[in-house]
Amino acid sequence: MADIQIERVRKDFGAVRALDEITLHVADGEFVALLGPSGCGKTTLLRIVAGLETRTAGRIVIGGRDLSDVPTRNRGLAMVFQNYAVFPHMTVYENIAFGLRMQGADTTRVQAQVKRAAELLHIEMLLDRYPAKLSGGQRQRVAVARALAVEPPVLLMDEPLSNLDALLRLEMRADLKAILQEAGTTTIYVTHDQTEAMGLADRIAVMHGGRIVQFDTPMAVYGRPQSTFVGGFVGSPPMNFIKVDVTGGQAKLGALSLPAPVASGSVLAGIRAEDFALVERDKGLPFNVLVVEPLGSHALMTGRVADQIIRVVAPPDTAHAAGTEIGLAPVQQRIVWMDAGSGTALGRSA
Amino acid sequence: MNALRRIVYATGIIAICAWVLVPIYFIALGAFGGRGGVFAWPKTGLPDRVLLGAMQRFLEIEGVWEAALNSVIAAGLCMLLSIALGAPAGYALARFRFRGANLYRLLILMTRAFPLAILALPLTVSFIRIGLYDTPYGVALIHTALALPFAALITSSLFVGIPRELEEAAWIFGCTRWQAFLKVVLPLALPGIAATAIFAFVISWNEVFAASILTVRERTLTAYLLKILSESPLHYRFAGGLLLIVPSVVFIFAVRKYLFAMWGIANR
Amino acid sequence: MTRARTSLLPYLLLAPSLLFLAALFLVPLLQTIGLSLTENGELSPANYQRMVGDLNFVPSLRNTFVLVLVVVPAQVVFALAMATMLQKLRLGRDIVLWIWTIPLGVSDLAAGLVWLAILQDRGYLNSALMALGVIDGPTPWLTYETPVALFFSVVAAEVWRATAIVLVILVAGLQLIPREYAEAAEVFGARPWTIFRRITLPLLRPSLQTALILRTVLAFEVFAVVYAIGGRNFPVLVGEAFVWQTDNQNTGVAAAYAMLVVVISLASTVFYLRALRTPPEQQP
User: Fold this and answer.
1) Which of A114, A119, A295, B67 is the one with CA 20 to 30 A from C102?
2) Do C252 and C36 meet the contact criterion of CB atoms below 8 Å apart?
3) Chain A residues interacting with chain C (CB cutoff of 8 angstroms)
């Protein structure tokens, strides 16, 4: 078991700064997701932790040992790759045993560990097969079993579920969470899928443009985004940002008047789609319904508030149709106020 | 209409097959027909008499076996050298991004624009000096200059086809670069490397000009056949031609799967 | 893993092949230039003068050029037709492909001998012609008195032998073109010929370029086929180089011929590189 200390890690590709002084501490046994759009540097950061990529500056300390200049093979990590990287010329058994054999483990230990890892991932019956005969989901399981068989102090996962179809991904996600909770392995998990990050991680590091823009628990990242980027990237549909004018410390939203964190000027009110109550037109913020999408568990309404498009979640049996105008009453304590210019969160409303 | 088109189409395919195969059949007839077969008139195109003795007598001529052996030595050595020198370069091109990689690729492609004739002439002088003249080893060296660029490009495409992540996974689980190459990359690349080697063998086995200029007594098979062209009877020439054709056709059959993969990538 | 060692590794891997090619490609190349330009150790155009003044010079130059101009386009057209036929073939594609690529393994010398068996006085062609009543008995086609017949015999042998390499390059290139392009054109109503001309051919340009460069360079080197079929009745450039080197023992003039072939080869390579360039903005 070990914690991971990423200290001021920088990476330049020529003139492009891919990682800008990243500092991140992953506690022992913690599951941290690196979440961000493609090109934000999350995979580069993971590969630097693995030693597969060189860094321009900074340190990687794992379990108190500075591994910054230690070659990959001596870092004692395990990793699951996006395309699984299961060795096609070895049986499933040999794949899972690979890391143990490289450690020089004796036969009994190899057998015991392979058996344990295979059972954990429910692939005992596949041990004699070659990867070419396996489905994507099964290969994925082999890759995870291979990583867990060495009982690594640290596990790195690079978009491990992105090549699976939706149903399989859901199943594998639950299995992964159960297995890793039991193993207690310190894990860094790279993904661009916010559902995956929310569902799996203890904490999420949201990355954007080579920086970590927010590092917090899933619920905090979702409920209290520190910038419009985080609010827009995490959650589906993205958080609504309504531009409102403040006078005398009060923000005016249609018929409603809410206390704002600034005395006057223009701010953004960040409100999740599900944080609206539907009221009569003149009792709230006037909302012009443009489209209603019935999604089963709820209906998603897209419409206009003044000249801005926002999305609102309504009960599945909502009677409001496109073309009608209704009123919206936001749940006041869930509003996140943002600076209209910089897009960063302001102090909580009084 | 549709049926007619299909018949025309099938006929075309069969006609081209015949265009390729029938000439080989004819030289085989010539090789096994002996003196009488060659001068028979008019010919029926059927194997009226097959004389194994005719081929056998050709093989007994002084120098034929030695020439074939020299060809095998030269081609075998060319094959080994091309892989030994070309595969590391192919690996470097496939796995590293480094300054000069494109320049190297360009240089390799440029070698195609230079005819072999240009190398053979001055090499006779150099080879006489260092004792490689009139040996299959010298021939192997110049043939390697011909096959090496191909070997580098083809192996590079092979290594590109093996996902980098497989190697990285091996490093993660404790392999050095060399161990990862031996345990993961090599087993996966081996069939393709064998195909590349065979390709190099065929290049050397078939080459005429350099082999003829660089040997006098220790001739390779092609050099020997070129030498006896003007002085030996027709049926011996045909026997020699057939002897030249058979191994390389067999080899091409063995690597047929890789031919297209090789050229598809070598294009770029 | 120090960074210096990692960045040095690719160069170490390239070094053996580079050293080898420098020793056996670059040095001989420079030496040939030297050989062609010197006479008894002194700089002199004598070798070139002797080459140009030689009785066989003009015929060999003309023969080589005409041969290339007839053979290479014929091979490209045949190979394109064959590749197109293969694309439609479902049953037995592998075996047909193998048969069609057999000549790939046949040496030019052997190819010449194959066609000698067909075209000799008492060969299979004459037997067939007699059966058709065209000729009365064994007729020679491969002498200096029948240059046209001899020329077409060489063309037949070259087309027979070396269309296969063009075919392989083009089939490989066709495999790289996604089927969706042709299908999209078909959806918009394009006929097969239009699809071939407007979609396939332009996308095949890089492969055509490779095939043309390779074939043209090799065609200018033609030598063994010609000698096997017609002996010295049909002089070609590399053949003359061979004669000057072996029979006349004059490496200087042989080198001059070799240099001439190099210049022609390079010029044609540059020509193809320019003429068939895919503009960067059109690259996939």
Assistant:
1) B67
2) yes
3) 51, 54, 69-72
